[in-house]
Amino acid sequence: MPEPILEVRDLTVHFYTYAGIVKAIERVSFDVYRGETFALVGETGCGKSVTSRALTQLIESPGRIVEGQVLYHREDGSTVDLLKLSEEEIRDVRGKEIAYIFQDPHASLDPLYTVGYQIAEAMVVHNTVKDWKEGFRKAVDILRRVLIPDPESRVKNYPHELSGGMKQRVVIGTGVSNNPKILIADEPTTALDVTVQAQILDLMNKLKEEYNTTVILITHNMGVVAEMADRVAVMYAGKIVEIGSVDQIFKNPLHPYTQGLLRAVPNPMAKIERLETIPGTVPNLIEPPSGCRFHPRCPRVMGICKEKVPELKEMEPGHFVACHLY
Ligand SMILES: Nc1ncnc2c1ncn2[C@@H]1O[C@H](COP(=O)(O)OP(=O)(O)OP(=O)(O)O)[C@@H](O)[C@H]1O
């Protein structure tokens, strides 16, 4: 049996805005297993980023409500609910045990400091090195680890002296500097050129193998999922509609939304019929559709879909779907 490192239960995030309450994610539940790459996929605005940020209390808007549980199982056998930790405790978890890589490397690095300083700082702040001197020495090793050529001189560069791909390598290096147990990568390659994207994905796979890090990958790109992930959760309008292994999702997608997503990408593994698009647009999350949130766009909609919210059901071992068809 795979061992969960995270158990997310009924995670809900609402934002109070002038226009109304945005129900960004609603009772989202999933497990992440130790050492796997778990992908969260779905269209823009479906709640991938909110979910990943909520895991470590990174939702900072003043009018937000966060409910549910995020159980984190440490290697020593202890378990904590990350949503219950104090600000100081969760700050220590972030960066040390659970690190983030965000989409835009330009925004993740401070233009005023050298890359060596920024990598060293991540270690000094969390006391994983004894002083700045050790931090700078390790920063060179980290640049080497993320395959930056000539790390001894690059460590003294400012971010503007590096290409986009190199910057994202530095961001990844900062992320892994404290050997985190979980790395949360939110669209880590979206802002980069296609050729550089492949290199960054290769690098992440290599680091994951080397350090047995668990990776949570946020992406809207099913091609990236096929290449990187072990398991996948498909999100639609703030709900998880399907969870399964990459094979289950690509070879036997059950939810009409998952089937639509796969049709939208060239996908040699899928056996499904190819239609061109999913008609319609993503719903407004202030007044989401009743019942199944996908029903207004669903080609197989039935009467019950408008009335009843479908729960996730296990259709084969490890393959869950929330759809009234099943
Ligand atoms: N601070 C906020 N206040 C109000 N609504 C918000 C806030 N942050 C996010 N949302 C809303 O929550 C929903 C989910 O957003 P989220 O960023 O998680 O989507 P996403 O799937 O990650 O999209 P993308 O791929 O574009 O990043 C969206 O409707 C978004 O507008």
General form? globular
Please estimate the helix content: 25-40%
Bound molecules: adenosine-5'-triphosphate
Work out the helix count: 11
Order of strands across the main sheet: 6-7-8-3-9-10-12-11
Model regions low in confidence, pLDDT < 50 over at least 5 residues: 268-276
So, the CATH homologous superfamily of the largest domain? P-loop containing nucleotide triphosphate hydrolases
By DSSP, the count of extended strands is 12
Could you tell me the radius of gyration in angstroms?
Answer: 20 Å
Straight-line N-to-C gap: 26 Å
CATH architecture descriptor name of the largest domain = 3-Layer(aba) Sandwich
CATH class of the largest domain: Alpha Beta
Average pLDDT score? 89
Spell out the helices and strands N to C: EEEHEEHEHHHHHEHEHEEHHEE
Strand content: 15-25%
Number of domains: 2
Largest sheet: 8 strands, mixed
CATH topology of the largest domain: Rossmann fold
**What is the structural class?**
alpha/beta
